[in-house]
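Postdoc handover notes: sequence design on the structure in folder B. Input tokens:
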């Protein structure tokens, strides 16, 4: 162990510098260092993402409650989790050209307006696949509104509900990434939409289970969970209607 910090030259009293926080042990930069840096800096595989994934599919509500209460060192940070997973999701669907938005919004017919609408849909689908991380982050406050309104007596403030729903969005992203081979096999067939609906249903069922487990001491928690999701879906529906009105006005 060195006597002085290699970063700021402060005298060391333990394993970490009391001034800047750097470890007292500075390893030689070699292949081992590079691999550890990739693990720790990119995915935190050594102490975060695998643990969080396991927790979100075995004891999600209890795990999120523990995180909110301060048991955080083993967890991957929730916002970072969503960003990393959304990036992987978007890359997979973009690289293998699986356009979910284009498959849900199909405009048939002929003429200049129809061709223009289909062009807008194609460009929108392309943008979504390339910027899915943004859309994933935007989902968080929408679902947080629902859970906050329905579980106000749960003792968590709105920011904590943002964290709760970050884990829930991450949970659904993990599910979609794990089931990606099914998406790939059904791509270009009528089964793609059915596959997506079933997987989404499983994802929201996991969210319901998580919230029921998280708010175990709340009365009518099943009803509150259902209502919270309905509120969120209503907000999304209104936003989509607003988007369609804007696109229609733009086309005209």
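Designed sequence:
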């Amino acid at each position: 162990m060195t006597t002085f910090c290699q970063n700021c030259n402060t005298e060391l009293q333990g394993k970490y510098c009391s001034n800047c926080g750097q470890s007292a042990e500075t390893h030689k930069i070699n292949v081992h260092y590079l691999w550890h840096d990739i693990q720790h800096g990119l995915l935190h595989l050594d102490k975060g993402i695998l643990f969080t994934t396991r927790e979100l599919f075995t004891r999600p509500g209890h795990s999120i409650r523990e995180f909110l209460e301060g048991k955080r060192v083993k967890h991957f940070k929730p916002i970072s989790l969503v960003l990393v997973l959304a990036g992987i999701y978007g890359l997979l669907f973009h690289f293998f050209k699986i356009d979910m938005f284009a498959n849900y919004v199909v405009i048939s017919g002929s003429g200049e307006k129809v061709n223009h609408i289909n062009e807008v849909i194609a460009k929108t689908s392309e943008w979504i696949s390339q910027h899915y991380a943004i859309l994933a982050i935007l989902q968080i406050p929408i679902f947080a509104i629902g859970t906050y309104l329905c579980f106000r007596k749960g003792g968590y403030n709105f920011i904590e509900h943002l964290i709760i729903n970050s884990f829930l969005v991450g949970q659904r992203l993990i599910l979609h990434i794990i089931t990606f081979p099914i998406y790939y096999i059904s791509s270009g067939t009528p089964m793609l939409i059915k596959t997506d609906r079933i997987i989404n249903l499983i994802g929201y069922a996991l969210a319901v289970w998580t919230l029921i487990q998280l708010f175990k001491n709340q009365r009518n928690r099943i009803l509150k969970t259902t209502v919270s999701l309905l509120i969120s879906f209503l907000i999304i529906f209104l936003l989509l209607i607003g988007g369609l009105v804007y696109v229609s006005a733009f086309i005209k």
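Context for whoever picks this up: The chain has a mean pLDDT of 82. Don't rerun without checking with the PI first.
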